[in-house]
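TL;DR need structure tokens for one chain.
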Amino acid sequence: MATTDVTKDTPQLFGHPRGLTFLFTTEMWERFSYYGMRAILVLYLTNYLLLHPAVDNVVGYGAIKRVLELIFNAGNPLGVQPLSSAIYGAYTALVYLTPFFGGIIADRWLGQRHSVIVGGVIMAIGEFVLMAPQLLFIGLLLLIAGNGFFKPNISTQVGNLYRTGDARIDRAYSIFYVGINVGAFFSPLVCGTLGESNGYQWGFFAAGVGMVIGQITYMLTLRTLPPDRIARVRSAAETKKKPLTGQDWKAVIALILLCIPTTFFWATYEQQGNTINLWAQDFTDRHLIHGLIDWQIPVTWFQAFNPFMIFAFTPAVVAFWAWQAKRNREPSTVTKMALGLFMVAISYIVMAFAAHITGPHEQTSWLWLLVFFAVITLGELYLSPIGLALVARVAPPQILSAMMGLWFITSFTGNLLQGYIGTFFSMMTKEHFFELCAVIAAAAGVVTWVFNFPLKPILEKKGPLHQPEVAEPQADPHMEPRLAE
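>> reply
TL;DR here they are.
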């Protein structure tokens, strides 16, 4: 059977191409792996590894410590908490730098599907390597490299499922984003609980098992996925080596400009796994009902609040946008992103108030964290999935994976800044620390809102999904069939 482009005959499931369900499941397990180890990484560093007498035996520890002290503290020594923040920030930053290069490799040589397989295998190995404390940085390096192959190419394949002009693309990315957060919800409950109760190495082990399950799922369902976008473009003679148009370059520049304030979104948002984790451990009364129920919420379980709220709030947010659209009042994409940043600022105002009403050595109710996560989650829904859909919709197909990788670079720069900001957590009053985060997010929101005026016409001209119509290719005996028809 000849291989064809995405057509209306593609098998559907829940109103979308069947492949979306399998990409959803693959990403769910990969996020289970990533967020599982992220939930325990700072706790592992501050409570165990950096306090261990044998920490100098960790491969590369001395050199990496000196480099981080040079970057984050002008060469001066870093204490345990600031050093853990620097390590956490550098790791989460590099995890989002490598997708840019992974996208280029996929576009030019390896292809998106093979890149996902290579990246997943490397990441699974990295999680298991983390079980050996002396190999901490080797395990983190493997996760960084594997994510570079995996992350941009799994996201790009969601867009590949839809034809030019298909209005379902935005909804597809919101559904895909729910998959991310289903995995992120269960991972702290599983990996975090194992790490806190049985030893951190078992939390890393559970994360590795999740990555293996995700890879098996992906490889068993490859036939339900479309060919790589670049392969479809190359199959048409009229689009082969087609140069970027003036409108294409305007879209690229618009996306690059939006990367600037988005960096500051991640710099504040990603404090969840770093300083907010430490706030939950040291400054939060975790009794479910103080004085009545003695059971305390495990520290890592707070990392499940945000992903749970993502898939709890998403239907309401999407319905609200649809209600606004019917009345011609739905905000533009860029305005939504600005609103998301303002919500992040409000979430940190909540935390600053919680710190203000309690003394420096007192604990505050866990309900403050519940409110914090609710507000910051709404902010995330207004920015992160919208940004992914924006890239898929307007990026020129010749450089789509590279542009998706570039978008993830905002997480690289943001997490580097997040690690630096986090070093002040033990140096400032907690009230002032949270106020700092609120000011950063609010300032980025103002910049994004200002960008809306010049960028809105450029982005709207790109249409629902900037993907060239290509001719139906002839049967190719060397090309793997996309679907069993």
